[in-house]
């Protein structure tokens, strides 16, 4: 691919705006930077309530909200072949040169990558999460990932820990997996103009209140910190099934005046919440990267986080205090952070983050991966089936059957479109 050649990229995931989260932000900011580099970017996701059809976002980003409704946790119901006609239509209409799928848990991502490979397109996959190996859900998810990545051109992970996890789960050759971290929009996340008073220390938590994000740890940590420090106040932003437990904790320990529950915080208002605090607390039990930490550091907050997944790779040691995902260890980490607060300069921290993380740098590195993917040699169906056969004694045969049916349906669709085109031509 020459420097002057511009790509036409299709981003696919179940997770995109108006839903908010790390994957959604990653796709949006990466797409915006790719557009600024001169490439064409189209996003495909499912419909969100009344948001359906084609929409345009900032910078001319075109988004297809296909008429599929979320089934579970913002994921669409697996159909295997139901999305083939619409994926083919978008690929042909937009003259796509490469398909980029995001998130292992996205049904739409797996189906779109499967159909794209059937049609001969090069595909790239980005994994944003860490998964285990022992529980039933992880075992099934890992098998699905093995199926998808058996025929992927290149893969991207957001941290070195995530890369190790993905390679072990999928059996993908390590040389096909690249590490490109997330970034932060430092122009949006700036510190407060004036330094906050240290008379009252404010600890900010912004997270989905679910088990994986360590909401149960917060239930034990917050009362203990409030008992040890009378001048500490918590601001908790986010919503989820574990919010009830936090509300009960606040009532039980009479902390209504020291723990503010904000509920779901729109992404546009995250900065205003962050700059009202001194310390950002992340209690996740598993995390591949965590963009929230970058946003907090860019706003000048000292971070206290659990030492899980790729979190230790995110910030320098003087910007973060790490703790084991244990209540007592987290309380000790918060003590260390409070003692370190006088040494923190929010403006200097912001300038360092500006140099460390840039979406433009992420976009340039991603284009290099696209270049490698496009250089991969095309393979016929038999060569692809031989790779699926290595996925297991029974799973391999099942994966081959799925791909053969997809291949036949695609050719049937091609023939039907050709016949329809001929029949609709005006007669002389």
Overall structural class, as computed from helix and strand content, comes to alpha/beta
Number of domains: 2
Low-confidence stretches: none
- CATH topology of the largest domain, by name, is Rossmann fold
Protein name: phosphatidylinositol N-acetylglucosaminyltransferase
Transmembrane segments: 394-413
GO cellular component, one term: membrane
Domain Glycosyl transferase family: 193-339
Summarize the structure.
This protein is of the alpha/beta class. It folds into 2 domains: 8-183 and 362-423, Rossmann fold; 201-357, Rossmann fold.
Report on the architecture of this protein:
The mean pLDDT is 91. Strands 3-4-2-1-7-8-9-10 form an 8-stranded mixed β-sheet, sandwiched between helices. A 6-stranded parallel β-sheet has the order 13-12-11-14-15-16, sandwiched between helices. Strands 5-6 form a two-stranded antiparallel ribbon. It contains 14 helices and 16 strands. The two termini are 44 Å apart. Helices cover 42% and strands 18% of the residues. Helix 3 links the parallel strand 7 (98-102) and strand 8. The chain folds into 2 domains: 8-183 and 362-423, Rossmann fold (3-Layer(aba) Sandwich); 201-357, Rossmann fold. It is elongated. It is α/β, with parallel strands linked by helices and 428 residues long. It has helices at residues 22-36, 84-93, 107-118, 136-149, 160-170, 215-228, 243-252, 270-274, 291-298, 327-340, 346-356, 359-375, 381-388, 395-423, and strands spanning 8-12, 40-46, 53-57, 61-66, 70-72, 75-76, 98-102, 122-127, 154-157, 177-179, 201-206, 232-237, 259-263, 279-282, 302-306, 320-323. Pathway: Glycolipid biosynthesis; glycosylphosphatidylinositol-anchor biosynthesis. InterPro entries: Glyco_trans_1, PIG-A/GPI3, PIGA_GPI_anchor_biosynthesis. Residues 193-339 form the Glycosyl transferase family domain.
């Amino acid at each position: 691919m020459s420097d002057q050649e511009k790509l036409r990229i299709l981003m696919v995931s179940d997770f995109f705006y108006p839903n908010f989260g790390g994957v959604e932000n990653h796709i949006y900011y990466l797409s915006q930077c790719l557009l600024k580099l001169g490439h064409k970017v189209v996003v495909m996701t499912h419909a969100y309530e009344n948001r359906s059809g084609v929409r345009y976002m900032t910078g001319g980003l075109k988004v297809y909200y296909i008429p599929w409704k979320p089934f579970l946790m913002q994921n669409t119901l697996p159909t295997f072949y139901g999305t083939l006609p619409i994926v083919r239509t978008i690929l042909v209409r937009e003259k796509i040169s490469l398909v980029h799928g995001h998130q292992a848990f996205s049904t739409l991502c797996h189906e779109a990558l499967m159909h794209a490979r059937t049609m001969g397109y090069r595909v790239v996959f980005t994994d944003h999460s860490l998964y285990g190996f022992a529980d039933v859900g992880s075992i099934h998810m890992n098998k699905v990932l093995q199926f998808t990545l058996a025929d992927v051109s290149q893969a991207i992970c957001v941290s070195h820990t995530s890369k190790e996890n993905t390679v072990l789960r999928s059996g993908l050759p390590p040389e096909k997996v690249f590490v490109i971290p997330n970034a932060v929009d430092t122009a949006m996340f700036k510190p407060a103009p004036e330094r906050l008073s240290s008379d009252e220390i404010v600890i900010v938590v912004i997270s989905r209140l679910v088990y994986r994000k360590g909401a149960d740890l917060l239930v034990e940590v917050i009362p203990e910190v409030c008992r040890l420090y009378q001048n500490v106040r918590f601001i908790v932003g986010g919503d989820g099934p574990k919010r009830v437990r936090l509300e009960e904790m606040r009532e039980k320990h009479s902390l209504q005046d020291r723990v503010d529950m904000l509920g779901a915080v729109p992404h546009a208002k995250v900065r205003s919440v962050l700059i009202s605090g001194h310390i950002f607390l992340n209690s996740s039990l598993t995390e591949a990267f965590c963009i929230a930490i970058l946003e907090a550091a860019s706003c000048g907050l000292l971070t206290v986080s659990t030492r899980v997944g790729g979190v230790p790779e995110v910030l320098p040691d003087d910007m973060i205090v790490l703790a084991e995902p244990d209540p007592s260890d987290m309380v000790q980490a918060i003590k260390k952070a409070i003692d370190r607060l006088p040494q923190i300069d929010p403006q200097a921290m912001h300038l360092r983050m500006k140099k460390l993380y840039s979406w433009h740098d992420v976009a340039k590195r991603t284009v290099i991966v696209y270049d490698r993917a496009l250089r991969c040699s095309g393979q016929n169906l038999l060569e692809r089936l031989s790779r699926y056969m290595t996925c297991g004694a029974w799973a391999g045969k099942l994966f081959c059957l799925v791909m053969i049916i997809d291949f036949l349906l695609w050719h049937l669709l091609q023939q039907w479109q050709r016949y329809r085109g001929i029949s609709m031509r005006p007669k002389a």
